[in-house]
């Protein structure tokens, strides 16, 4: 029996039938993927989410985009609040009284839209970004540091948890600033004096916010940079989660500094920011170091991520191709294995000439990475059992888990060549969804576990079957 269905008319991408044939001699390079569903290797802690930037209003006001977020099983959504294109609630600030005039209507409605699709809201309160400060009119700046006066910014930041608590909106996750390295330099390259200035303002804001609501969770997305992390352990207040931004290329010009080739991107997908390097403490090292000095094992959040960070003059079209899908799948796989709490993809819906988004906002077409995130968002829950799987090929990697009595196996072909995959430890009927280099459609099908799986180039495939009773 074969299955096929059609996506809603809002999308130009269609499902197609995927077939597997018996009795065919196949001379493609082979690999064996073995699954042992009786061997529990851990419990999942990961949920997926996304970040809204300038498109926040379009997302909030579009029932189609909100439905696509629901369909994808996204569990956390982040938005800036103090940026030129953001739902900024502060109209003006009075430095004498340390109070402001606020209009919360836009932000409150955005928060309600987030919770309506089943997601945790996360707010980024900006203080410094890309050599500019997005501060309310009337907020004084310290002429020595170039940052806002600490107690003024602290009083401003405290208005967020105070307001949300008063109106009963469940906002618990916060970033105080984004990409502070724009001020103190990559990995504190501008010196520890500027890092101390920054931490002083951060500490003041965190204390004022926690005084309003001690249940909130606050962090900074530069915290895992080694110099920042080591200095923070001595001079910074507690963070509630370890946090980082992950982009593996930062140029659009092939051959230029910052441009990663397809092969480099695939190699970096599950290593950069996850393993210790000169730029970042890896997940395991950062957890251990924080626990050793502060006595707390912290959750970890990949707070903003995509294949390429370049934004001016258009973004990297590879984001939406199968290279982008394979990169996303590898990044999510290591996020599961490293027991991250959240991964937030940047961003959700953008125009056809801006490639960051999971969705083309012009026609609501879903791009390849959307399906990878959706497969985990709808089929992998916190607490699900991770089970053992292995591959005989370094070019094919796997992730296996049990969700609601269903055994799930995600296969990723990291190489742009064809392979035949033999499955071991699986029996009976398997349903499958697949995206690959060959077809522009999402392929679905049903086959017997005794049949080999054929992959033609870059591929991400989700196989599902009933889990055997233990």
What topology emerges from the helices and strands here?
Layout: E1 15-17, E2 30-43, E3 47-52, H1 56-61, H2 63-71, E4 76-80, E5 90-94, E6 99-102, H3 105-116, E7 120-125, H4 150-167, E8 173-176, H5 181-184, H6 192-212, E9 217-219, H7 226-235, E10 242-249, H8 262-269, H9 283-294, E11 300-308, H10 322-337, E12 342-346, E13 349-350, E14 359-360, E15 365-366, H11 368-379, E16 385-391, E17 396-403, E18 406-413, E19 418-424, E20 429-436, E21 442-448, E22 453-456, E23 459-466
Parallel strand pairs: 1-21, 2-19, 3-4, 3-12, 4-7, 7-8, 8-9, 10-11, 11-12, 13-14
Antiparallel strand pairs: 2-16, 5-6, 14-15, 16-17, 17-18, 18-23, 19-22, 20-21, 20-23
Helix pairs in contact: 4-6, 6-7, 8-10, 10-11
> What's the end-to-end separation, in Å?
28 Å
Assign the structural class, choosing from mainly alpha, mainly beta, alpha/beta, alpha+beta, or little secondary structure.
Answer: alpha/beta
Main sheet properties: 10 strands, mixed
Q: How many structural units, i.e. domains?
A: 2
Tell me the strand order in the biggest sheet: 1-21-20-23-18-17-16-2-19-22
**Nearest-angstrom radius of gyration?**
23 Å
CATH architecture of the largest domain: Alpha-Beta Barrel
CATH superfamily of the largest domain: Glycosidases
Looking at the structure, the CATH topology of the largest domain is TIM Barrel
Helix count equals 11
Taking all residues together, what is the mean pLDDT? Answer: 92
Global morphology: globular
């Amino acid at each position: 029996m074969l299955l096929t269905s059609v996506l809603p008319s809002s999308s130009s991408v269609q499902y197609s039938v995927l077939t597997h044939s018996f009795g065919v001699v196949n001379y493609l390079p082979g690999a064996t993927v073995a699954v042992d569903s009786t061997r529990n290797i851990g419990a999942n802690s990961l949920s997926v989410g996304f970040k809204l930037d300038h498109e926040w209003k379009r997302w909030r006001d579009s029932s189609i985009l909100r439905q696509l977020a629901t369909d994808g099983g996204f569990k956390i959504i982040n938005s800036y609040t103090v940026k030129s294109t953001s739902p900024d609630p502060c109209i003006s600030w009075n430095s004498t009284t340390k109070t402001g005039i606020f209009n919360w209507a836009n932000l409150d409605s955005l928060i309600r839209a987030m919770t309506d699709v089943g997601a945790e809201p996360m707010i980024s309160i900006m203080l410094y970004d890309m050599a500019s400060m997005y501060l309310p009119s009337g907020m004084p700046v310290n002429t020595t540091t170039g940052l806002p006066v600490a107690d003024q910014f602290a009083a401003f930041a405290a208005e967020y948890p105070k307001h949300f608590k008063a109106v009963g909106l469940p906002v618990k996750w916060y970033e105080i600033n984004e990409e502070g390295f724009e001020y103190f330099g990559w990995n504190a390259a501008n010196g520890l004096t500027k890092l101390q200035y920054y931490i002083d303002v951060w500490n003041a804001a965190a204390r004022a916010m926690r005084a309003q609501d001690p249940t909130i969770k606050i962090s900074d997305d530069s915290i895992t940079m080694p110099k920042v992390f080591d200095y923070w352990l001595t001079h910074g207040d507690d963070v509630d989660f370890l946090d980082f931004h992950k982009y593996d290329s930062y140029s659009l010009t092939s051959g230029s500094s910052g441009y990663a080739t397809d092969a480099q991107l695939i190699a970096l997908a599950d290593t950069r920011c996850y393993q210790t390097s000169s730029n970042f403490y890896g997940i395991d090292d950062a957890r251990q170091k924080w626990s050793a000095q502060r006595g707390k094992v912290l959750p970890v959040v990949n707070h903003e991520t995509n294949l390429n960070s370049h934004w001016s003059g258009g973004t990297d079209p590879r984001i939406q191709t199968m290279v982008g899908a394979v990169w996303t799948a590898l990044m999510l796989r290591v996020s599961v294995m490293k027991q991250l709490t959240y991964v937030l993809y940047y961003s959700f819906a953008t125009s056809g000439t801006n490639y960051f988004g999971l969705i083309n906002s012009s026609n609501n077409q879903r791009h390849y990475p959307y399906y990878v995130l959706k497969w985990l968002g709808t089929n992998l829950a916190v607490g699900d059992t991770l089970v053992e799987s292995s591959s005989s090929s370094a070019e094919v990697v796997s992730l296996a888990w049990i969700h609601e009595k269903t055994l799930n196996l995600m296969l990723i072909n990291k190489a742009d060549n064809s392979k035949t995959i033999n499955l071991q430890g699986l029996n009976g009927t398997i349903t499958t969804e697949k995206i690959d280099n060959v077809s522009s459609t999402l392929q679905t099908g049903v086959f017997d576990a005794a049949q080999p799986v054929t992959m033609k180039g870059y591929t991400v495939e989700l196989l599902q079957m009933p889990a055997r009773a233990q």
